[in-house]
Design goal:
The complex is a heterodimer of chains A (390) and B (302). With 390 residues, chain A is α/β, with parallel strands linked by helices. Chain A is 27% helix and 20% strand. In chain A, the strands form 5 sheets. Chain A has a 7-stranded mixed β-sheet, sandwiched between helices. Chain B is of the alpha/beta class and 302 residues long. Chain B is 34% helix and 25% strand. Chain B has a 6-stranded mixed β-sheet with strand order 8-7-4-9-10-13, sandwiched between helices. Chain B is elongated and about 85 Å long. The chains are: A alpha/beta (390), B alpha/beta (302). Chains A and B meet through strand 2 of A and strand 11, strand 12 and helix 8 of B.
């Protein structure tokens, strides 16, 4: 076990150790007045020596210890993970406990769930869908260098993130076959796109109509006759159930539309609409040539986006591309990032960074010790025997 | 009136075996317990002597005159009463006690011993009186006898507080005038002060039997002080700062020398001198002075 200090300057509080020393020195009653009638036979040649003598050594020691512990507490001691120790087996949630025990013979290892705080396997299984990759990285950095790690994962592993975990140790990666339900691709729910344009013959409306028709065709109950699009002038109020709005009216964005966005709506503004919030947002869609097509950002509970180009195929060839409906939908409803994969493909790499092991704070234990020392000091300092001797 | 505050119960029990006596025979009047060399009318025949002018004719032994045709006077030893005085030093130095036994000062011991003397004198039918010396004056309870006299003396003792320093010898001379010749005077004090010792010598020279009990504290005997102390003389107010352990050896030597000089000096003046240390039993000096000779093994004044 290696100890370290996060704030060694806190040890400067150790100068406070001088205080009890001074207290116990100055209590030295060098001038007790003693009535003494036979004074004439008393001869004092030398003055009383300065006795650098400490009184009440037990109490002094306790006080010194208390202050030393306080100084140490200020210095924030930490303990680095012990090297060595028994091997670890972590089981991803979703695997049956008995199956895990049966599948691996590691009697001397510590068995834990792959979940936050790594609860012991004897405890109730945590909910599945934990941030598996992140937990693996945490475990890798916490455990000592020579602890062997075995990970039991189901065949379909969820809780992954964008990068395959790359650890500093070689992990015994065991894939346990579990009967997981087959993946059914979910179809997007039907939504209405509300387009506001004061010119009913605007050629830009063609692209939105086409996109809405494409969405309707791929919906669960396709009805090409009733495409999910409403085209209305700006004077019409926004329907409360409307979630997606396309605003193609030039000029300042009205305040009520802004309020609607802030209460949870998602709006795509035309290039001629002036809305400084959207222009300041990040780029959501790059064109083929690297030019910016859509910027956007959050506004209140909703999101505001704005086209940077006019809706003309000459300026924006993507309008004619077959992927336009999907891209448009992704603007309004960004698909979730992929987080599940076949466990076999997610075997951790071993080229992880050699980070120093994460320290564990000793502060709570030290605080308890300081409290106990303080109680002991008070008990000793206020004991009746000491009061009597004063 | 009982005075349990002054005499502890066990000491009172041991007083039973004591009897006050004077080595100088008392010439007082009345019938008492004490042998006297003065002769006269009495119970126990002593001697015949020839008639001298002025003798009472009733004392002539007429039967002897018939046989010898001379006038003889029959003399008897006369048992006389003793006059006992307790002289208590109540100057400020008597307030000193031991740290080991707080609340028990030299003065308390002196009061206790004086009360013992009074009890003994009362039991023997002797006349007794009390003299207390304080810085602001000398108080005398004139010698008398009887329980009421004891009450007077005990009342005086109980109210006694230590104060001041010894008065000069001129004022002390009054004491000698109040104490009759042949009286037994028990001086209770620390005897550190010259006027006190001089008074004892003067009384002894004036044919009083003087006994001195020097009351010492255990700290004066052992000097157990360690570390720095500020020693203060309660009478003069003089202070000395010093280290107890360093001063111990010199003090013990000088103090022992001073005590032995005092003892020699008092013995030369015919004073019986004793020391009493505060941690000893209260009746120890009385046992030494008046106890049975077998118990009186130690040399006096040691």
């Amino acid at each position: 076990m290696n100890l370290g200090l996060l704030l060694p300057a806190g040890l400067a509080a150790g100068f406070a150790l001088l205080l009890p020393l001074l207290l116990h020195l100055s209590r030295r009653a060098d001038h007790r007045t003693t009535p003494f009638a036979a004074l004439r036979w008393l001869e004092v040649r030398q003055r009383p020596r300065r006795h650098l003598q400490l009184e009440e050594l037990a109490l002094l020691a306790l006080r010194l210890l208390l202050l030393a512990m306080l100084a140490l507490l200020l210095a924030q001691p930490v303990r680095y993970a012990a090297s060595g120790g028994s091997d670890w087996v972590v089981v991803a949630p979703g695997i049956d406990r008995d199956v895990a025990w049966a599948g691996l013979a590691a009697p001397r290892a510590q068995w834990h769930w792959l979940a936050p705080d790594f609860p012991a396997l004897e405890l109730d299984p945590p909910a599945s869908g934990q941030a598996t990759s992140s937990l693996l990285r945490e475990l890798d950095s916490t455990l000592g260098d020579d602890v062997r790690l075995t990970v039991l994962v189901p065949a379909r592993l969820s809780g992954l993130d964008g990068q395959r975990p790359s650890l500093r140790r070689k992990v015994d990666w065991r894939v346990i076959e579990t009967d997981t339900p087959a993946l059914i691709p979910s179809r997007p729910a039907p939504v209405k796109l509300d387009v506001r344009d004061d010119r009913p013959d605007d050629p830009a409306l063609r692209f939105f109509r086409a996109a809405a028709a494409a969405w309707s065709a791929s919906a669960e109950q396709p009805n090409a006759d009733n495409p999910d699009i409403v085209i209305a002038p700006s004077s019409e109020r926004i329907h409360p159930e409307t979630r997606w709005l396309v605003w193609l009216i030039p000029g300042e964005l009205p305040a009520d539309v802004r309020g609607w966005i802030a209460s949870g709506g998602v709006a795509l503004l035309g290039a001629s609409t002036s809305a400084p919030e959207a222009t300041a947002g990040g780029v959501l869609w790059y064109g083929r040539n690297g030019d910016v097509l859509v910027r956007g950002r959050a506004l209140g509970d909703g999101r505001i986006m704005q086209l940077s180009q006019a809706l003309e195929p000459a300026r924006m060839p993507e309008l004619l591309a077959p992927t336009f409906p999907d891209r448009l939908r992704a603007l309004f409803d960004p698909p979730p990032p992929p987080e599940a994969a076949l466990a076999e493909t997610q075997r951790p790499l071993t080229d992880g960074p050699r980070l120093p092991p994460a320290p564990r704070p000793l502060t709570p234990w030290l605080a308890v010790l300081v409290a106990l020392l303080f109680l002991a000091e008070r008990w000793l300092a206020t004991s009746p025997a000491r009061e009597r001797s004063r | 009136m009982q005075a349990p505050e002054l005499i502890p119960r066990d000491v009172r029990a041991r007083l039973r075996d004591l009897r006050l006596f004077s080595r100088k025979q008392s010439g007082g009047t009345g019938f008492g317990l004490h042998h006297s060399r003065s002769r006269g009318a009495g119970l126990e025949f002593s001697q015949y002597r020839s008639y001298q002018q002025g003798d009472d004719p009733r004392q002539i032994d007429w039967k002897l005159h018939g046989r010898s045709d001379r006038y003889f006077v029959r003399e008897a030893e006369r048992d006389s009463t003793l006059e006992v005085w307790a002289l208590v030093d109540a100057t400020a130095s008597m307030e000193q006690g031991d740290a080991a036994r707080p609340g028990w000062s030299r003065l308390d011991a002196a009061k206790g011993i004086a009360a013992c003397i009074i009890e003994l004198a009362l039991r023997q039918g002797d006349r007794f009186g009390l003299v207390t010396v304080r810085g602001d004056g000398i108080s005398v309870v004139p010698a008398s006898t009887g329980p009421r006299q004891r009450s007077r003396c005990l009342l005086e003792l109980l109210a006694l507080q230590a104060q001041g320093a010894w008065p000069d010898s001129a004022r002390l001379r009054a004491i000698g005038e109040r104490i009759g010749p042949g009286a037994l005077v028990l001086v209770l004090g620390d005897l550190f002060d010259e006027p006190c010792v001089e008074l004892a010598e003067q009384l002894s020279a004036a044919r009083r039997e003087v006994l001195t009990v020097q009351i010492l504290t255990a700290e004066e005997r052992d000097f157990p002080f360690r570390g720095g102390h500020r020693f203060k003389d309660p009478e003069t107010g003089r202070e000395l700062q010093g280290d107890g352990a360093l001063a111990r050896r010199g003090f013990l030597e000088r103090f022992a020398l001073a005590r032995s000089e005092l003892s020699t000096r008092l013995a030369g003046s015919g004073v019986r001198h004793l020391e009493y240390v505060l941690d000893g039993p209260l009746d120890a000096p009385l046992q030494k002075l008046f106890g049975k000779p077998a118990a009186d093994a130690g040399p006096e004044g040691a």
